[in-house]
Amino acid sequence: MLLPGFGAEKQQLLAKSSVLVIGAGGLGCPVLMYLTAAGVGTIGIVDGDVVEMSNLHRQVLFSESDLGKSKAVVAGEKLQKQNSKVNFRIFNQRILPENAVKIIESFDLVVDGSDNFPTRYLVNDACVLLDKPLVYGSIYRFEGQVAVFNLADDNGMKTNYRDLFPESPDSDQIPNCAEAGVLGILPGLIGSLQANEALKILTGLGNPLINQILTYNMLNNSTYIMDLYPNSKSGILMPKNQEELRVTDYDVQCGIFQIENIPAEELESFLESGMNIRLLDVREEFEMPKMDQSSVISIPLGELKERVGELENDVPILVFCQSGKRSLLAASIISEREPNLKIYNLQGGINQWISFQDQLK
Amino acid sequence: MKILAFGKIAEILQKDEMELSGPEDTLALRKRLEIDFPALQGMDFKIAVNKKIASENFRLNKEAEIALLPPFSGG
Fold it and tell me: What pTM was estimated for this model as a whole?
């Protein structure tokens, strides 16, 4: 390769590098093809799915003859033919809290091409705990986002996905590709940008999107780059160590857990119904405003596991927090300990309740 | 101030760019948008001011360029 700034030395750096690609889907396929072509020494492929007909318009590694076969296995076979020198490590499984550390820890860099919030938050958190640079990419209809997380800039500042969105939105709020639909070229473009960021990081070339997030709109070709800063709320739901990561339920964090939700506008009549109920505030001490009710107990989410015994086991509980997400997590912790206890969640949390009060004024 | 909207937010606003005046900080801006576009209530999105993501409340002047960025999960 003859290119100013990219010679044999850089090529050698790539050959010594290892990259883990999460998901061999719309984003993962172009990432894998370009990293293989570029000569990355070791490439890991994690995907537990099989090839389906509806994948073929965007997952360009797969053919009609691959239908029903493991994506990770088929991708590995095809890519090996593309470059015989690459060492492929195939993980024909979904990445989960219990296997994430083991899968990620031996790689230099991770590229996230997954398609759902639970996996994205899991991969983010594992990369933070293992101190691995993460090239993030995601798409929605005609737009994509790319960022480099967990890599320090010249001032030593690092950010991750939780600095952007500390808590996952409910999965029903943002549809995935299968539900929202996407033109196949978009993940091709965004995945190529991710591969480019990975290659730049591994070889020290140019300026990767460190502490930045790029958006791309395929309809008008506009790009927009924003700067990211550490967020004081980023640690609220972040596991503090590998042991905590292993037992974190990301489906619960991302709102896939069933519980009885009380909408803000029904809170008053619910409380006045005469039912004996405890209110549990799982926010941190500093979070305002406080709920003006005598029966409120305050236990921050981080302390709930140790202090769950303080709750009466025969009085129903209404759990609340600022936005209604940590309270869902709290509900799952309580229901694990007290499976028969009736638990309600204040939907949308204090935020929703305040905006309802404002509407009444 | 100029407002740029991305993803689902642009779908709710039915445009990806608009002018707005009034809100003096990002908290007031969010409230104003939620009143004008009730479908934004309970939606997660980030506000960037002059291409800097603002997680805390941030004062706005009328030349500010605002971006409204929702999370994407697709791949």
Answer: 0.81
